[in-house]
Structure formats: C-alpha cells, structure tokens
Design brief:
Shape: globular
Number of helices: 4
Distance between the termini: 76 Å
Helix content: 10-25%
Order of helices and strands: HEHEEHEEH
Oligomer: single chain
Length: 138
C-alpha cells in the first residue's frame, strides 16, 4: 500500500448508523385503519424524497412467498415536518416519517424517527382547509 492509498483510506467518512425507525402503522400486521386515514392523522408534512429501492418487506406472512423470488421495488418516501405548531416552537423539528410501499403487492409501513418540537404533541393540530375552485368562485 502506498502513502496515497493510506491517506485515502483514512480520509473516508465512516458509514452513518441506520436511523432508529419506530413503526407506527403497517398493513403487514392487519391494521384496521387504511394508510390514507392514518396519514390524515399526522401533523402536516411535505414529501422530500420518493425513491424506488429494493423491496425487503416480509411477504412470507401474506401468502406472497412467490413474490420473494422476483426482484421488485418498494417506494421509499421520506418527509419533512411543515407543522405550524412545530415552527412556532422556535426549534427546528427533526421529525421524519418514512413510508415504504411495495409496488408489487401493496404492502406498506409508516415509521418515524425523531420527536416533534411542538409544545404539546398529544393535542392534534387542525388541518388547513384547502379551497376548491367552486369555493373560490362562490
């Protein structure tokens, strides 16, 4: 190994440890609430990334074992908090939601990393009302 090889090896950043995702909702576990209904209960957020990655969801428990034999993708969607209550706290909210949606079977999970910075996260925020064209013209 030459001296340039040694300096290049030492200048690399160590890999980041994986995020400690905490699963909030999953249709793998037979949840009674649909994913859309669950997403409506979360504080406001915006989607930051929407990447296709290799699926690693557990298809065995859903009689989908044959899907394990086929390489397929899962949609990985990462979000950023845009809640006015978190912004009012004066501290940057680092709460991130991760949605994993299998493109082949429809299996999905929603997980979170980080804590909200809002004053009382147990009180739900009112959702902003989106005006339709009919409401604007009326």
């Amino acid at each position: 190994m030459t001296s340039t090889d040694a300096s290049a090896a030492t200048s690399r950043r160590p890999p980041r440890p994986p995020r400690p995702w905490r699963v909030l909702w999953s249709n793998e576990t037979g949840s009674d609430v649909s994913m859309g209904d669950f997403l409506d209960t979360l504080p406001t957020y915006s989607r930051q990334r929407n990447d296709p990655v290799r699926c690693r969801l557990n298809h065995n428990d859903h009689d989908d074992a044959e899907k394990l034999l086929v390489k397929h993708k899962v949609r990985r969607i990462l979000t950023r908090c845009t809640s006015a209550r978190c912004q009012d706290s004066g501290v940057v909210c680092k709460c991130i939601y991760r949605l994993l949606i299998c493109e082949l079977s429809g299996l999905a999970t929603i997980a979170v990393d980080g804590e909200r910075t809002m004053a009382n996260p147990d009180i739900s925020s009112p959702k902003p009302v989106r005006l339709t064209d009919a409401m604007k013209s009326g």
